[in-house]
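Why show two proteins at once? Because comparison is the fastest way to build intuition. When a single record is shown, students tend to memorize it. When two are placed side by side, the eye starts asking what differs. So, the first record is below.
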Amino acid sequence: MPVRGTNHAPKFDGTTPQLRDFLEMFDASTNDAGLLGNDRIKQILRYLSSDDRELWSGLPDVSLSDYDAFIKEVKDMYPGWQGDRRYMVADLQAVAQKHANEPMTWRDEFSVYDHMFRKVMQQLMNKGIIGTAECDHIFLEGLPSDIQTQTRTCLLIKFLDHHLQDPYPLTDVRAAALFLL
């Protein structure tokens, strides 16, 4: 098994979105190493932070050597870990709100926002939870007020016949914001 903290070691940051990837990487490593039952449970605890280790080691199935039952209990502690209902519209709005309140003076800062927004947006759109127009609107609202105002002005000049009540497509907002940065 890879040593904790090395490049090939499974990593878990304690958050629900990262659980699935962590478990998949851990299972692949333990399968390669031929670990079973309680050995798997002991090993997974070694990859956790002290807080997560304390939480996970207190689960009832730790002492039973039943790895599958243990993992089921772990998954129960992280609602939405499966990924298909990992995000809600409120999560997309929270990403936008967080970035609207942070300065955005470089393309790298915009890129961080763009990537976080798209990650949540794609999941919601693939499940039919949110539509394109709502995503477009929320994306523009996620820009800091100074960049948002300049982006709107740029879009108004570029698209003279665009109705003001219709949101600008995300691709156009993105292009205008990148032009300004």
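Second record. Ask yourself what differs from the first in the token line.
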Amino acid sequence: MFSDHYGTAGSPYQQPYAPQVHAGSSSTPLQFYSAGPSNDFPGARPSLDGHVTAGGVGGSSSFGGNIQQSAGWWSAFGTGGFEGEPPLLEGKPPLRSLLSIELGINFSHIRARSMTVLNPLRRIDEHIMDDADLAGPLIFYFSFATFLLFSGSPQFGSIYGVALLGTASLYTLLNLMSEAGIDAYRVASVLGYCLLPMVGVGAVSIMVALDGLIGYLLSLLSVLWCTYAASGIFVAVLRMSDQRFLVAYPVGLLYGCFALLSVFRGGK
């Protein structure tokens, strides 16, 4: 009724198969795998014989490295990193270089032109505005408006409006007066950089009210300073030294408007 795989009949309860040992054969049991390392597979590696200790794996000289103990959860908030790991910003340019490359902000030019405005008595290079920018002027306009805001006189719209109208007016006048001519971009850059003394007056207005004698003197001094610096740069760039007073007059009127905005608080 029941038959095995070889077609012979048998009972349903078969005896387990026992291998027969022939005479003359070895009594060593059959082994299907070797206990030692095998090099039959290209990806095979020596087994990790030995025991695992706190410092790593011992007993096998063929295994390099060790098993480090895991630190606590607070190690995720540390700055140590892994051993031999390079710093995150290694090989990357600093922030100043990134701003100079991506946004076109050259801090060395801003510093050089600011020092020229702060020291207008020294000789001005006629090529100082060959590479004009608006990063510095925008910073100075925004700083001036912010200082006036802190002093209780919000004048953002008035400052930007006066700057735009003054730039357009001086661009027209300078091109009518000079033979070389100048573009509006450089005019805006010169007027913005020369606003730096007026920014200092705006910073003083936070602590001291300028609607008095001290405020009038400071405002007058800043107007003369800004006018002298801006007219000197325009004269050097356009080579019109014999017309400096004609250039200084409209420039002084423009900075006088900024002084009025800083002295008289329109927020009252």
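One difference worth noting in the second protein: Residues 20 and 26 are 12 Å apart (CA to CA).
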